[in-house]
Amino acid sequence: MYVCNVDEGSAVNGNAHVDLVMASVTDEDAEVLVLAVGIEADIAELEDYEERKLFLEDIGLEEAGAGKLIRSAYRLLNQQTYFTVGKKEVRAWTVKVGATAPQAAGVIHSDFEHGFIRAEVIKFDDFVHFGSEAKIRDAGKLSVEGKEYIVKDGDIMNFRFNV
According to the model, what pLDDT value does residue 15 have? Predict the structure, then answer.
């Protein structure tokens, strides 16, 4: 991965230096990201999501560079994210692409992997569409998965285990 730090005016389309980097790595299986770190610092200071969105639109960007950088790093490292949701917190966990449900449970605690019984899984897109776990259950979109289940990026999982 190559990260090119550019000025604000080059944040959207890059510049001649970015073009040189891209040309020099065409034979590599590499990503070239264009970030304006000064803009990233400004975005980080904005507390409101809508403010960030307007700021990005004003300069012609669809998203902050930090998100692009994280997704690219995850791809290169063969990693993905799943979530656990409780009454007090939502937590993101990182696992390798291709991890099974027990392996994902083991990221939280080794006892979860050793005593794995099953995982209740909600697809991220279903959660966005229905808006709550109760509505997902009512729609029959919550799946119960066993030890062979391969975790998908964005899954929301609740593990059942016995130790």
Answer: 96
